[in-house]
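Predict structure. Chain length: 547.
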Amino acid sequence: MAEEKRPVKITETVLRDGHQSLIATRMTTDEMLPIIDKMDKVGYHSVEMWGGATFDACLRFLDEDPWDRLRKLRDGFKNTKLQMLFRAQNILGYRHYADDVVEYFVQKSIANGIDIIRIFDALNDVRNLETAVKATKKEGGHVQTAISYTLGEPYTVEYFCHLAKQMEDMGADSICVKDMAGLLIPYEASKLFKALKETVKVPLQMHSHYTSGVAAMTYMRAVEAGCDIIDTAMSPFALGTSQPSTEVMVKTFQGTPYDAGVNQELLLEIADYFRPIREKYLASGLMNPKVLGVDINTLKYQVPGGMLSNLVSQLKDQHAEDKFYDVLKEIPEVREDLGMPPLVTPSSQIVGTQAVMNVLFGGRYKVATKETKALLRGEYGQTVRPFNKEVQKKVLGEDAEIITCRPADLIPNELPKLREEVGEYLQQDEDVLSYALFPQVAMNFFKERAAGFPAKAEKAKKAAEEKAAKEAAKNAPKAPEGPKEVVKYVPASAPFLGAVPGYVPAVGEIPPMAGEAPAVPFAPGQSAEGQCSVNGAALNYQVNCLG
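Prediction complete.
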């Protein structure tokens, strides 16, 4: 009997996580717009194009309004669902926000064109998902909650299934296993997705990164075990710290029960479009070849590749590279002390930096970062295991007040105060949300916008001039190779002599550059050399005055 067809669906990430992972989220809206008509005809399940770090990068580095990007892409994608990444109570920023800010951000995101909101919490604390989930449901959006996948003793298949069931019960329309570091290996993916499929009824999605080299194989096993949707990126912005290639995964499943059924010819044309953009960022240095390979240490030490590179950088700054393996041994100890959080942003940075502090600065927790203190106070939420009480006491003191409720319950409404602070710079309702997430960056952007973006205009003018100069140099006639022509006798009509410094035409000769010939005549024995054009061809010349 023929196997039942179960086509895998594709979420394309090239407009968000693909370039966020490889070029620090620097792809501009103008680079995206020319290709979206073709992308809209592929047959994607969705295109992820907003959220994550795109918001910050638009305001901070690109002088772009992220809301304007969303509206433009919404206008272009007539048939494809648009998707964003949302950090639960952190929205797209780096702290917990009041519920009124979270609700308003969801409202405006959907009003401006988002269809699917992927909501995750770094600690897998479902309490931090509640407000964003309810707001998305209220606005008619698709709620996709995400499990932050990680390794460690508490993180069993049973744990993840329990988490998925909680998410389904709170209203999730689909659930994503979000493996930010590429730690889920293929046969473990088979076990996990088989169990998840037996636990929940909603569609399941898989998100991974190619950092450890196993993501494509993991996708295959996940799909075979019941995964419905996979995240992929067009090949010019795939692999390395990005996702598996869209074209490769589509071709892999072709002719199987999981055939995605998308237009592969269009995929090739789309890849051709993005290839010069990739080359541009490679040439500029923004795309570092180091992020394009496989970092096997990710699997060896069971920590994300980015976390390892951060450790190396921190130790190098302290001239303590020889302490690298001491820090690696300290990481699991610190992680255990801090409640075994998933090693994802921001907890991976908190654990890694504290491990460095413990090794370098005279003993464990003699120096603690403010983020370590905040985590131990409960400001980020509840961890899978209790904190080490002795460490908590040492870092915070005997009488520190510990947060045990949902952290946002302690944050009063913020929107009225934020609107007042934005004041005269408010040009659209959404501006208050940009300001809420990145106050200083947004205010700088608002001031530039009010002035007509002079810095951006100057930068664009300079870029255009440089491009024109390169084109001119590229199209200029090339001088023939070999020795210079030595001119001993030149007839009066020789046209190129008008370009020779010091040449004065003979009486009765019409100079080719009338009125521009130099006033100083040649003296006997004087010579001149250079390059000029004769009948459209470049000529290297040397002229000797024989008297």
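Summary: The chain has 22 helices and eleven strands.
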